[in-house]
């Protein structure tokens, strides 16, 4: 079972995750972070930036791999995930830009970009802590329903609901790219610790399916049940469709403090 933690809000989640990442970096100054985009992890990145500043944590050796990228956006497009990761993570945290990779969505080279990315993650020794959001459709990264649970980084076609959800970041819905390149579910499962975040009622169904539903490619988030160290952190609204909520609270309330998340 994944550990499920209910927190008051995204700021409380951010404080928990920041703690875990800071202790990881203290143990391993060249830790490898798996970075999600989307609105969900933003409060966590802010909490982490504050902790790094307050505690004067040296993050110059920290490495990072983003989960995904759109295919075909012009270089430097503000909504490319490269730009988002630079703006929301690399700069505020003070990471070394060359140590943070994002899949390459250039159509000219995209055919081998997946294999290149896998090789880079392997060469880095794998991801230590992977931050994940979840889409309404249950997707993690951009692994839409039906994605193989063993999949590796490759090009995918976005679903209509995901393109509609992401249209808010673009001038018009047609501007949302049709394709993306995303770490596969198999790639994500190789990370040593998965931290799945979700806030708000709109995520309640996807969280219930991920945590308590059958493990199925139809609900990519359910793959977290295959991982030996998954922490799911949600607010009350995102937890509202979980059947075993009372037990998750009981387990968390009685967890030895030394275990962290
Ligand atoms: C996006 C990203 C995912 C993200 C999800 C949820 O499309 N590719 O990595 O987890 O959709 O986004 P949000 O956090 O904005 O709800």
TrEMBL record:
Signal peptide: none
Keywords of the record: Carbohydrate metabolism, Hydrolase
Pfam families: Glucosamine_iso
Source organism, top-level taxon: Bacteria
Domain Glucosamine/galactosamine-6-phosphate isomerase intervals: 11-227
Protein name: Glucosamine-6-phosphate deaminase
Organism field: Agromyces salentinus
């Amino acid at each position: 079972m994944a550990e499920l933690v209910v927190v008051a809000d995204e700021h409380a989640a951010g404080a928990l995750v920041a703690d875990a990442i800071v202790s990881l970096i203290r143990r391993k100054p060249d830790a490898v972070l798996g970075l999600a985009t989307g609105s969900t992890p933003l409060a966590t990145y802010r909490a982490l930036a504050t902790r790094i500043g307050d505690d004067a944590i040296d993050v110059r050796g920290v490495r990072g791999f983003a989960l995904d990228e759109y295919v075909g956006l012009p270089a430097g497009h503000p909504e490319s995930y490269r730009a988002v990761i630079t703006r929301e993570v690399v700069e505020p945290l003070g990471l070394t830009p060359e140590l943070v990779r994002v899949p390459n969505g250039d159509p000219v080279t995209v055919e081998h970009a997946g294999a290149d990315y896998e090789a880079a993650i392997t060469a880095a020794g794998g991801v230590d802590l992977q931050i994940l959001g979840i889409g309404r459709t249950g997707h993690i990264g951009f692994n839409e329903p039906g994605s193989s649970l063993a999949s590796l980084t490759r090009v995918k076609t976005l679903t209509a609901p995901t393109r509609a959800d992401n249209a808010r970041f673009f001038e018009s819905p047609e501007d949302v790219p049709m394709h993306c390149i995303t770490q596969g579910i198999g790639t994500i499962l190789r990370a040593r610790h998965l931290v799945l975040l979700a806030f708000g009622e709109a995520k309640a169904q996807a969280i219930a399916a991920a945590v308590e539903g059958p493990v199925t490619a139809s609900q990519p988030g359910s793959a977290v049940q295959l991982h030996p160290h998954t922490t799911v952190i949600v607010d009350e609204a995102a937890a509202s469709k979980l059947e075993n909520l009372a037990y998750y609270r009981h387990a968390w309330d009685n967890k030895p403090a030394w275990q962290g998340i």
